[in-house]
Write a structure and sequence with these properties.
By secondary structure, the chain is of the alpha/beta class. It has nine helices and five strands; from the N terminus they run αβαβαβαβαβαααα. The protein is elongated and about 60 Å long.
Length: about 230
């Protein structure tokens, strides 16, 4: 396959309902935590894991259960606080990238003082965040923190199957088994593989076959560290 510009984003409809969440040992604890609300014993908690690990899906499940809303960290401070004070249950995605630390501190205080609930999503546990405000650091580090672990091959296969189903894509038998043992064991690699399969199958007007999967794995080899697995397909 000729080299080309790779696009890792491709528009498609994804269900964020509970019955579409693929449960496995790497995310089971996080799901159990979400479903245990409102019995957290804390006004806020942190769920962290790699990109594509299902944090946002879990947050949507919780928001539906709690009638919560997602807070956009890019909102102006006054608008952000207006939303934070209006709703009892809030989700902040990419909380570890939140630059206005004083605003995050006030949001935590607001949730605590008003019997609210705050769900923070991040790539890492709070001790690894670049927090310079001492009061915020101690407040964050005291929160319950639930990790989504690195997926095993079984989970990668489940995720890939779900993502193909979300896009209503026709995939030949053997494609998923072929890909999961050759891709980097990460959520991002699975997402990239499905994105490219979608893109290339549309461009070439062909089904996703093992042959096409082989081409995609070779393309992704330039972007992810791929395990050394002999190609016997």
């Amino acid at each position: 396959m000729a080299s080309r510009q790779i696009s890792f984003e491709w528009p498609h409809s994804v269900s964020m309902r509970r019955n579409n969440f693929a449960v496995n040992p790497s995310n089971q604890t996080a799901l159990q935590w979400i479903e245990s609300w409102p019995h957290w014993g804390s006004y806020a908690s942190v769920i962290y894991g790699p990109k594509g690990s299902g944090k946002t899906h879990l947050a949507h499940i919780w928001a539906e259960k709690s009638q919560g809303v997602f807070l956009d960290s890019k909102l102006a401070e006054a608008d952000f606080m207006a939303v934070a004070q209006k709703f009892k249950c809030l989700v902040i995605d990419d909380a570890d990238q939140f630059t206005n630390q004083q605003l995050l501190f006030h949001t935590l205080n607001s949730a605590k003082n008003n019997n609210g609930s705050l769900l923070l999503l991040a790539r890492s546990a709070t001790p690894q965040w670049k927090v310079t405000l001492p009061d915020l650091s101690s407040r964050l580090n005291a929160l319950p923190q639930i990790a989504i672990a690195t997926p095993d091959q079984e989970m990668l296969a489940i995720l890939m199957t779900k993502q193909f189903a979300d896009r209503q894509m026709a995939v030949d038998p053997g494609v998923i088994d072929y890909a999961v043992v050759r891709l980097n064991r990460s959520y991002a690699a699975i997402q990239a593989f499905v994105d490219m399969a979608d893109q290339f199958s549309l461009e070439m007007k062909r089904r996703v076959t093992v042959s096409l999967a082989r081409d995609i794995v070779q393309e992704l080899d330039r972007h992810f560290a791929v395990p050394d697995v002999p190609d016997k397909a």
